[in-house]
Amino acid sequence: MATRVPNPYRPGFNQAPAALAGRDSVLEAVAEALDVAALDGRTPRPLVLTGGRGVGKTVILGEAAAIAATEHSWLTVPIEIRPERPFTTQLLERLAAARDLYRQAPPGKQIEVTAATIKASVLGIGGEVEVRRRATSTPEPALPLDAALAEVCEAALEHDAGLLITIDELQLAAKPELGDFAATLQQHVPDAWPLVVIVAGLPSIRDTQRGVTYFERGEWHVLGPLDTTSTRLALEKPADDAGRPMTADAVDQLATASGGYPYAIQLLGHHAWRASKGSDAIAASHVPAAIDATQSELAAGLYESRWQDASPKEREYLAALAELSATQDHVTGSEVAHALGTQPKAVSYVRDRLIRKGTIYTEAERVRLAVPGMAQWIRR
Ligand SMILES: Nc1ncnc2c1ncn2[C@@H]1O[C@H](COP(=O)(O)OP(=O)(O)OP(=O)(O)O)[C@@H](O)[C@H]1O
Ligand SMILES: [Mg+2]
């Protein structure tokens, strides 16, 4: 009986692809920053990754955690910023958890960072670590950020290790809070802590973080679509490895349809795999069905995530904007405000938030949704 081979594509946000293609230069930069901190005893500049939705920023952060663990036995403190929520409390908790993990390990030895720890560290340092702390100790007063960082770095150095901090969705951070974080890190660069910081966010962070010297002087990497060779590899390799290769024609057509957009590559691969169920190869005849399914899912997924990301007030704003754009090509901010029965000033903060999230953008007077077709989707 034929055994079922699971679909080898990963069409989901935050899902590591089976073949991580075409990100050599950013991965080299990650490896180098870790080497500088771990081997040369200097604190490197932060790495700043930017790119639109679905280009693979989060995947790189996860890969960085895996490199830190496997190459250097380092732990990672991952932070994902949420809309309208401060991140410092969670950062302090996770720094303390990482410190405790280092302290619990036998001194003088490198700690063994296992696959399980990597996974835990990527998901948010071990649920189990936090539970243990809560059960055994009375809550400690939270340390100020620089003391917390000093403690974890000291504990790490006992094991010849250091710490990677990743911050995802940076565009959602409140400027003063991020400014404090950046200032603290900047101030301690001369201390040569074994600390690497990698942040990721939408392209808008270039403007919103202007003036934050720590990030401005960081090493910026713009993630865009993959080139043709990498696109083909990302499509071809998972199928090959799973034992149902793609014909050259199928690869060509799928690569073209994807435009090199990583999320689309995974969706196309996924649907082509499905469409070819029962065949020994993914052929050109399976491509049209894959493209169809991808297009509708791509649309729904992208719109859906933006909608989920929006607060009730923001949804009202989006709905009004979508309604107006059904009948007119140009919609201005004041027209949206009037449709909501209020003055532009009263909703400018909602508009600004949606701009920061990358859901809408402005062009002179005009307000527009960032993804084509989203207006129709909202109206439906
Ligand atoms: N280099 C790559 N090669 C192949 N597939 C990739 C690559 N990078 C990312 N992907 C795939 O693209 C999709 C999106 O990746 P990811 O969630 O990291 O994007 P993102 O930039 O963080 O998006 P968002 O801004 O919405 O958080 C996933 O399905 C992932 O498997
Ligand atoms: Mg992401």
List keywords for this structure.
380 residues; alpha/beta; Rossmann fold; Helicase, Ruva Protein, domain 3; Arc Repressor Mutant, subunit A; 3 domains; 5-stranded parallel beta sheet; two-stranded antiparallel sheet; 7 strands; flat; binds adenosine-5'-triphosphate; binds magnesium ion
CATH superfamily of the largest domain: P-loop containing nucleotide triphosphate hydrolases
The side-by-side strand order for the widest beta sheet comes to 2-3-4-1-5
- Identify the CATH architecture of the largest domain: 3-Layer(aba) Sandwich
- CATH class group of the largest domain: Alpha Beta
- Count of alpha/pi helices: 17
Structural class: alpha/beta
Strand content: 5-15%
Ligands and ions found: adenosine-5'-triphosphate, magnesium ion
Total DSSP E strands: 7
Distance between the termini: 45 Å
Envelope shape: flat
Q: How many structural domains? A: 3
- Biggest beta-sheet profile: 5 strands, parallel
Q: Which consecutive residue ranges, at least 5 long each, have pLDDT under 50? A: 121-136
Elements, N to C (H/E): HEHEHHHHEHEHHEHHHHHHHEEH
Describe this structure in words.
The chain is an alpha/beta fold and 380 residues long. The protein has three domains: 24-222, 3-Layer(aba) Sandwich (Rossmann fold), CATH 3.40.50; 228-306, Helicase, Ruva Protein, domain 3; 311-379, Arc Repressor Mutant, subunit A, CATH 1.10.10.10. It has 17 helices and seven strands. It has helices at residues 24-39, 57-72, 88-104, 115-123, 127-136, 145-157, 175-187, 205-208, 213-216, 228-241, 248-258, 262-275, 287-309, 312-327, 333-339, 344-356, 374-379; strands spanning 47-50, 75-80, 163-168, 195-201, 219-222, 360-363, 366-369. The protein has a five-stranded parallel β-sheet, sandwiched between helices. It has a two-stranded antiparallel sheet with strand order 6-7. Helix 7 (175-187) links the parallel strand 3 and strand 4 (195-201). Helix 3 (88-104) packs parallel to helix 6 (145-157). The chain is flat and about 65 Å long. Mean pLDDT is 87; it is low at 121-136. Magnesium ion (MG) binds at residues 13-14, 57-58, 168.
